[in-house]
Amino acid sequence: MWNIQIAGVDIYHIVNWFYIYSFLGWLWESSYVSIKEKKLVNRGFVTGPVCTIYGFGAVIVYLILKPIAGNILLLYICGVIVPTILEYVTAVLMEALFHTSWWDYSKKKIQINGRVCLLNSVLFGLACVLLCHVVNPPVMAWLFRIGEKYTVPAASFLFGIYLMDNILSVRSAIQLSNRTEKLHQLQQEVRQHLAAA
After folding, report:
1. Which of 14, 64, 159, 161 is the most buried (most CB within 10 A)?
2. Largest alpha-carbon pair distance within the chain?
3. Span 118-160, pLDDT tens digits
């Protein structure tokens, strides 16, 4: 199973990259928001220390952009476009599924529906160049050094915990969404009652 390949990269590396970048994304995002708000904030959708969009984003972007990694300018331009599309689609899907948004850029100067903004897109391009040329090569070397003997069981164990965490988090988000919808309906009924009085 671990030798199955996607875009020339085996599942073993893809799964490990996903966990590493999900954790690093969570660390970055939670630290940034915690400092900004002067209190500890868990920025992940799930309870554990992972930010899934960073893991999926890094893996998808790396696999798509790997063939053009040698052309820095093209890599940067595509690094602006691909993650921006991914962020927008993710926002739309999460809003449709859970009737709430996990981020809002509507106060930024140049943005689209509060889901994506120019500043983030520009930074995504830089992040893609860094991912392909600075971050991922040592991550790959580190995984090779540790070896499959340790990382395969670790990845399997993490997958079990991650799956359980996702199931519980989705359940909580759906329950919250249902409560929010009921509160909204109640608010509408109160408004109609007050208007009729």
Report:
1. 14
2. 74
3. 999 999 999 999 999 999 999 988 888 888 788 888 877 777 7
- Nearest CA to 158 out of 18, 25, 30, 62 is that of 18
Sign of CA dihedral 66, 67, 68, 72: positive
Torsion sign, CA atoms 94, 96, 101, 104: positive
Closest CA to 60 of 89, 38, 33, 37: 89
Of 32, 166, 29, 172, the closest CA to residue 100 belongs to 172
Three-state DSSP at 48 gives: coil
Phi-psi region of 113 (alpha: psi -120 to 50; beta: other; left: phi over 0): left
The 8 Å CB, 24+ separation contacts for 117-126 are 120/84, 120/87, 121/80, 121/81, 121/83, 121/84, 122/80, 124/79, 124/80, 124/83, 124/84, 124/87, 125/76, 125/77, 125/79, 125/80, 126/76, 126/79
Half-sphere exposure of 180 (CA within 13 A, CB side): 11
**Cβ atoms of residues 116 and 87 within 8 Å:** yes
Whether the model clears a pTM of 0.85, i.e. scores above it, the answer is: no
Both structure tokens of 136: 């991922």
Which residue reads 């988090």 in tokens?
169
